[in-house]
Specification:
By secondary structure, the protein is mainly alpha-helical. The chain has helices spanning 5-12, 18-29, 39-51, 56-66, 79-92, 96-108, 131-136; strands at residues 2-3, 35-38, 72-75, 112-114, 127-129. The two termini are 13 Å apart.
Amino acid sequence: MLVDANIFLEVELGRSRSKECEEFLTKIMRGEIKAFTTDVILDSIAFVMEREGVKPAKLRKFLESVLFYEGLTIYSLNLMDKIITTALMEDTKLDFDYTSTYFTMKSLGIKEIVSFDKDFDKLPGIKRVEPKDVLRK
């Protein structure tokens, strides 16, 4: 499964579903759940946190914490991946962030994304689930 930005942001910004997301992310941190995310997703999280007024020290603390997630693998998109993503954008009709996530999932054979974003429901070959769905398994 791949973890979308909004799952981390729920916790980091203290949003309404932060408890559910924190429980899910803790399982990844402990290595009880194996998951992926991307460098583009981590960049998006940083941009949103900065836009929301999060101080650099808290942003750094978040990014450092990601290093200790035993069950999390971070996929880094290279330049060719990003070029292919821009071509895919014409098919998905979605922005670069969404399409790079979709590209990564297809490239790695990942079928599920943990996200609250319903735009992923439109993409063929993947299933969107929420943290509560994974926690019930």
